[in-house]
Amino acid sequence: MYWTLVKTGLIRKRLRTFLTIMSMFIAFVLYGSLNALSGMFTGTIDGFEADNIIVMPRYDFFAGKLPISHINYIETLEGVEDVIHADYLLSDSIESMMDGVTFAASPNFFDVYTRLQTSEEAKLAMLNNPNAAIVGQLMADRKGLKVGDKLNTKSNYTNSDGTNNWSFEVVGFYKAEKITSDELGAVINYDAFDEARINQKGTVGMIMVKAESAETGQNISRQIDEYFANSPYATRTGPESMIAIEMAGEFADIELIVNSILMSVFFTILLVSSNTLAQSIRERTSDIGVLKCLGYRDSTIFISVILEAIAICFTAVLSGLFFTAILIPAIESMSGGTMDDLITLSSSVILGGFAIGLVIAFMSAAVPAYKALNLKVVDALRAG
Amino acid sequence: MKFLRQVFSITEMNLKNIMQRSGSSIVIIVGIAGSVAVMVSLLAMAEGLNSTISSTGKDDRVIILREGASSELGSGLAMSQVDIVANSPGIRSVEGEPLISAEVFSIIDLKKKGAVATSNLPMRGVQPQSFKIRPEIEIIEGRNFTSGTSEVIVGKGAHNQYENVEIGDEIKVRDSVATVVGIFSSGGNVHESEIWADLATSQGIFRRGASASSMIIQLEDSESFNDLGVYVESYPDFEFRVTREKDFYNDQASGSELIKLFGQIVGYIMAIGAVFAALNTMYSAVSSRLVEIGTLRALGFNGMTVLVALLIEAMILSIIGGILGAGIAYVLFNGYTVSTLAGGSFSQTAFNFAVTGDVVGQGMSLALTVGFIGGIFPAWNAARRDITEALRSI
Predict the structure, then answer these.
(1) Residue B45's Cα: distance from chain center in Å?
(2) Alpha-carbon distance A175 to B340, whole Å?
(3) Which residue of B has its CA nearest to A267?
(4) Strand partners, B103
(5) What is the per-residue pLDDT across A344-380, written as a single tens digit (0 to 9) for each?
(6) How far is CA A216 from each of CA A50, A211, A223, A225, rounded to the nearest angstrom?
(7) Residues A8 and A82 in one domain
(8) Taking CA atoms, which of A104, A295, A352, B70 is between 20 and 30 Å from B240?
(9) How far is it, in rounded angstroms, from Cα B345 to Cα B106?
């Protein structure tokens, strides 16, 4: 019985139903895709390791340095299982083959930072060849690099020959399980690099500690930060996921603005669509009169009107989110892999979409339907 | 003439009874206003960021970094190299002194007003010549720092955004303490987000020894760039990157292109939503007026006049929406200061939203497009209606 009423309501003015659904569809595409992108603004991205803690320069996440001697203290702490360190070579993208960052890392790097995976042969080749580089799969694909190739880069560090040119030999590749953009890089031997460079010798960009457990990790983080608090090389220590959020926090204002603008986007369209929906029900006052004449109960009519609104809203939510789900891989492949895993449509966003759809359906349908029902049949009929 | 008169009279009639259809007319206005407001705001943000960063650079100034460094932070030069470059031809001199300043550029962290955690802001150690090279720097409160002391001056933008940087305040810079003695403006460019101190003091604070991050040079004129380049090239052991300051800062402004693109994409997508809403409204405007339209046709008004009049109605509503949207964006955001992490310096750069004529123009053309597409189909439909059928719908 409801189905007949709902169906008739929906096809009464097909064009209007279609247009209403389309304008809400757009709203939900925006809702879905912007929420999916929000991880990029907030740094709350899945895939970072929780157990490893990172020691960063306190004042300058991005370009600051720590002396390698910090490790001597960190290794004495209880609960520390392993320590690795790395420095970054920023490269001049115009003059080098690199698009990413080169990590000059300690030999056990891949054993501790298990998010990046490479083969045993590559690790072995790295140990035997001071000039070796293990290149990220994504970069290797882009540049067509093969084992044995030379990787040339112009970096911010001066080589022992007085130039800023660095050349490494590709011995293998690494993959990142998640966040594929991390495959845009290369890993080289820290010791050989540090010996060859003539500036900033003996410094590292980050130290990573493998702790026995997450709890000891917290304890270790606090101890490290306290110990170096008054050192000229103060530290900021925490799990990788936290450091990522703090780095993104530097974009704070933009995030706030973008979010508030986006909220206003969404509400504009919702206001517009719910107004249209309400309008179509107001126009049906006389139809409701007819139904009452025919002996339909008030509750039946009311529920069928609400169901009709819900049908429209849910169609929009479903198609909007479905379209978003199609859109995400398209954006990712357009970005050439650099945005993989950074945009995700989480289940809470999907549930939120349906909740919003439900609220709009009620808000826009309940009041006009209730008003129409409360009219006397004659008045309702006259309203047409 | 007759055509125009007819169009005019129908439009007048339509507009007079627009109030009776205020509910559905508002849908068009709100839908368009929302899209325009969002697009204008985002574009104004991009515009503001872009003009702040790229206005910093001048064509006749040169910045020298270490080769391979893409920003001042990743760069380092020996002071002895600065002395050699100072002898290059092409550098303007004032009172026999070449206009060249070695600068240390690093990052400190202070609390933003009302914040719990600290944020990064750049600190620049400069030589006295720096103020002659950059005449846009102007002390607006207090005085300049004295060389050799731990005094600093704070840029206007940083002063507005951070806590405890009033004149007389002591700020913690790494493990030293410095006193704020003045506030400076720089014509709205990136330096307003910085803290400036004496070069020697900064070298001490940041443990730079006899080295600097970069050199800034005032050329004789913009053509002398080549003279300087040739001179620097003649020292084969100098691994320098010599860039016109204008090019350097234009490169750094690339982040604003992203915001702009983002604003346009979001704006266009919203506009599509607004088109559907406008179509909906205009179709229902037409269907509720079928009898009037039929009557007009029976009286001898032709279909084209009806079409044009309906289109004008949609366009007028969209113009109102566009003006409203741009107005909201202007009132809320024009001149509004925000800061973000700028490319290159990895520290907070403050900038103002700039709702420029160009930005508003883009917003208005969006509004008109939506109005046109939203109006033309329903109007076309109305104009083609059969007179008898339209009249029968009473």
Answers:
(1) 4
(2) 32
(3) B34
(4) B214
(5) 788 888 898 899 889 888 888 888 788 777 877 777 7
(6) 12, 6, 10, 14
(7) no
(8) A104
(9) 9
Rounded to 10°, the helix A240-249/A14-42 angle is 110
Residue B364: what pLDDT? 94
CB contact, 8 Å: A189 with chain B?
A: no
Quote the crossing angle between the two packed helices A252-282 and B22-54, to the nearest 10°. 170
Assigned domain for A299 exists: yes
**Spatial distance between the Cα atoms of B348 and A99, rounded to a whole number of angstroms:** 25
Give the ipTM of the model, two decimals please.
0.73
Q: How far apart are CA B182 and CA B195, in angstroms?
A: 10
Report how far residue B331's alpha carbon sits from residue B41's, in angstroms, rounded to the nearest whole number: 10
Pairing of strands A132-136, A165-176: parallel
- Indicate the pairing of strand B176-185 with strand A52-57: unpaired
Place of tokens 């270490």: B66
Q: Count Cα neighbours of A355 within 13 Å in the Cβ-side half-sphere.
A: 6
Range B258-280 average pLDDT: 83
pLDDT at B182: 94
Range of the domain at A133: 59-233
3-state secondary structure of A116: strand
**A149 and A127 part of one domain:** yes
* Contact status of B45 with chain A (Cβ, < 8 Å): yes
Mutate to test the interface with A, among B280, B317, B393, B394 (most CBs of A within 10 A): B280
Number of domains in chain A: 2
A69 and A105 share one domain: yes
Over residues B117-159, the pLDDT tens digits come to: 777 788 999 999 999 999 999 999 999 999 989 999 999 988 9
What is the DSSP code (8-state) at residue A57?
A: E
Q: What mean pLDDT do residues A335-340 have?
A: 61
Q: What number is the average pLDDT over the span B187-193? A: 87
pLDDT of residue A41: 64
- Tell me, yes or no, whether A38 and A67 share the same domain: no
In a domain, A86, yes or no: yes
- Cross-chain residue pair B68–A156, CB shorter than 8 Å: yes
> Is A239 within the bounds of a domain?
no
pLDDT digit string, tens, across residues A9-60: 888 888 888 988 888 898 888 888 888 877 666 655 566 666 788 888 876 6
Task: Estimate the crossing angle of helix B254-287 against helix B357-384, to 10 degrees.
Answer: 30
Which 3 state secondary structure label does DSSP give A189? strand
Q: Which of A205, A233, A261 is the last residue of a domain?
A: A233
Residues contacting A14, CB < 8 A, separation 6+: none
Flag whether A242 is in a domain: no
Contacts from A219-222 at CB under 8 Å and sequence distance 24+?
A219/A79, A220/A53, A220/A74, A220/A77, A220/A79, A220/A80, A221/A53
CA distance A342 to A339: 5
- Put simply, whether B69 touches A (Cβ < 8 Å) is yes
Residue A303 has what pLDDT? 87
Q: Within this chain, do residues A223 and A271 fall inside the same structural domain, yes or no? A: no
Work out the pLDDT band at B346, boundaries 50, 70, 90.
low
The model carries a pTM of 0.75
Contact criterion met (CB < 8 Å) for B276 and A90: no
Per-residue model confidence as pLDDT tens digits over A225-272: 888 877 778 888 888 777 777 666 655 566 676 677 667 777 776 777
Residues 6+ apart with CB under 8 A from B336: B352, B353
The answer to whether B340 and B151 have CB atoms below 8 angstroms apart is: no
C-alpha distances (whole Å) from A120 to each of A123, A125, A173, A186, B279 are: 5, 9, 11, 16, 63
